[in-house]
Structure formats: structure tokens, C-alpha cells
Amino acid sequence: MSQKRIAIFGSTGSIGTQALDVIAANPDLFTAEILTAQTNDELLITQALKFNPNMVVIGDEKKYLIVKEALSHTEIKVFSGEKALEEVAAMDCYDMMLAGIVGYAGLKPTLRAIEIGKAVGLANKETLVVAGDIIMRKAMEKRIPVIPVDSEHSAIFQCLVGEGRNKIEKIILTASGGPFLGKKPNFLVNVKKDHALQHPNWSMGAKITIDSATLMNKGLEMIEAKWLFNLTYDQIQVVVHPQSIIHSMVQFEDGSIKAQMGLPDMKLPIQYAMAFPQRIANDFPRYDFRKPGTLSFEEPDIKTFRNLALAMEAMKQGGNMPCVLNAANEIAVYAFLRNRIGFLDMTEVVEQSMAKIPFIPHPTLEEYFETDGEARNFAASLIHM
Ligand code: NAD
Ligand code: MG
After folding, report:
1. Percent of the residues in the chain that have a pLDDT greater than 70, as a whole number
2. Among 8, 12, 14, 176, which residue has the most ligand 1 atoms within 8 Å of its CB, making it the best to mutate?
3. Number of domains forming the structure of the chain
4. Is the pTM of this model over 0.90?
5. 100 CB under 6 A from ligand 1?
6. Close Cβ partners of 215 (under 8 Å, ≥ 6 residues apart)
7. Ligand 1 nearest-atom number relative to CA 40
């Protein structure tokens, strides 16, 4: 494999730092050419000095001079602001974007990368939740691969390698169940952010950790899977598997089921996406079937974890409804993280936003942007932020 030049969008996050670990471990295979961060100037500077990229972007314009000054003795170009993310995504200096920004903010730069024909390793699931039809259509037009980084979708992608046109009967998305598996509303009503931020199996950014606790993450992942693998609503099943060893499964039309397994470690799907179709040797810990242990499975409790039911509903309705769900959820999660609303209030905010924002069956990109803005404003008005 020739050396691949990677652009890491969101390099200071959980995905971004692990992607840099993969690059550091495989310097003959990868270089980091673009690094971007929203606020963490210190880490961005450290990363830039270590990996010597072509350019960096610091989202927060107040930090531009700090970063510029710290890198002034290098050749590294420094940009700042939201627009710069899209401009840099259109540059020629890289081969693959690793889309590791969290939330709606990742949509425009990712779209830009696809438009100019760059391969994308996609961690930022919100991009597909908001505008999956447009993203996948553009990727088809440009004949560029969108390779999932999300562990469940990487699992499905890996199960499909070599299957050609063989039909999928359904996919089985596994869910850990999060820290509150088995709990009921009378418990959840009192949950505070410190408890919700403790995920049993994965260490991730704050937003996705809260989404995992509410099961919204699995709802977003159903919508992500729909677009990535061109599936219908009834072809996607969620199963709770608390050990997170089976990362997801595909059932084909002959009834045969393939699973991809391993210990939970995001570096594996990250390096798989970056090196695809090659696999890279590593010394990550291995799962050992000889050790006593159980792999268990159960149905998700969507009566308690209503966010998952709302995401299913949004997916069934289609149009701009998943975009509304996502925008309202982002507002709700950040309000919860600031102790402004309770755990169960997050669901209320999403549900009321879905009822309020006008439905558009076939939105244009512009209408997705407008829907996002409207849903955010309405959700924020419910919280009085
Ligand atoms: P994180 O919060 O740890 O990192 C987010 C990154 O995005 C940071 O580098 C931050 O600077 C940047 N960022 C945040 N807001 C921004 C904005 N408005 N504009 C530009 N950049 C911004 O998040 P994470 O856990 O690394 O998750 C990143 C994405 O990957 C999310 O979409 C998440 O759902 C997905 N994902 C993460 C994991 C995981 O293990 N962390 C697993 C599967 C999928
Ligand atoms: Mg996942």
C-alpha cells in the first residue's frame, strides 16, 4: 500500500486522538496532512508539532493567534473559523478525510470532501442522520467510498466484503445498553451527568456517551445504517448485547448470519477504514474464547428508553424528520451536560420538536440547513437557554 495522506477533522477528540495513535504506529502507511480542532489549542499545537501536517484549523477564532504564534517556526499553515473547515476540506493535500467532528458541525466539511472526490472514513454519524440521501448520492456520483468508522457499521461493512450482490435480509445492530441497562423511569428521572458519562465498555466524547446512555446513539446508528447499506426500516434490528464483543451482524437471504467480533477498541475500526481493503497487524489485546464468559442478548426496552422509539419513528417518516431529531437532540444533550435539564427531559425536547417542525418529505440541502436551524431554535426555546 502506498502512503496514504489523512486529513483528521476533529483531531483533538476521542476518535481524532485514536486516529493519530494509528498513524503514529504506522508511519510508513499514513501521514497526517490536516488537523482540526474547535477549542483545544494546546492539544492541536502539540499534535501539529509531532505530526508536522500541511495545515491546521482552529475553529475558535479567538485562539488563532496563539496557534499561529506557536507554529510560526514551522511550515504549517494555520486557519481559523467555521468557513475554513470547508475550505481546507477542498484542498488537494490529502487522500482521505477521517470525519471525526462531533454533531451537525461535521456535515459541511464532509460534504465538501465528497464533492471534490476524496475518500471518507466516517465517524461523524450525524452527517448521515441529517442528510444521508444527499451524502450517499454525491458519493455514488463521485464514485468515492464512504467507509464507516462507527464500530457497528464497520462490523457490517466487514461482513459484506466479498458478498457482491448477495442480498441482505436484515442487519442486527448490537447495543451495549449503556450504563442504565435494566433501569426504569423512576430511576432515570434522577440521573445526573456524572453518572451518565460513565460508559461500561467504551471511552468516548461527552455527546456520544450521553447518547449511549439514552439509547439515542442506537437510533442515530439505525439511520446511519439505512443510508450506508441502502436498507429499509424493517431490515434493521437492534439487539442489546452488554459485553460489546459482537460489533454487529448481517443476515443474508439464505438465513446465514455473519458477525464481526473482537474486544471493544475504536482503534480497530479506525485503522480498518484508513487502510481498507488491507488489514494491518497490531498488538491490541485479543478476545479469548477459552476464558469463562457469556455473550448475552436481549431486546431493547424502548418503552423506557423512548429516544430509540423516537429515532425509529423519525426514520420511518424520513424526509427532514431525522434532521429535526438530531438538532433537537444536540440541544437537549448539551443542556443536560450543563445541568439545565434532567435525563428524561431530553426525550421531551426531541419529541416536542418532532411534533412542531413542519415536515418536508424530500428536502433540498438548503432545506436541511433551515430545518436544523428551526429545530435548534425551537428546542432551545423549550429549555429557556
Ligand atoms: P469528541 O467530543 O471527543 O471530539 C469531537 C471533535 O470535534 C474535537 O476534535 C472537537 O474539537 C471537534 N469539534 C467539536 N465541535 C466542533 C465544531 N462545532 N466545529 C468543528 N469541530 C468541532 O467526540 P468523539 O467521541 O471523538 O466523536 C466524534 C464523532 O465520532 C461523533 O459523531 C461520534 O458520534 C462518532 N463516534 C465516536 C466514537 C467514539 O468512540 N468516540 C465511536 C463511534 C462514533
Ligand atoms: Mg457505534
Report:
1. 99
2. 14
3. 3
4. yes
5. yes
6. 175, 177, 178, 300, 302, 305, 307, 308
7. 11
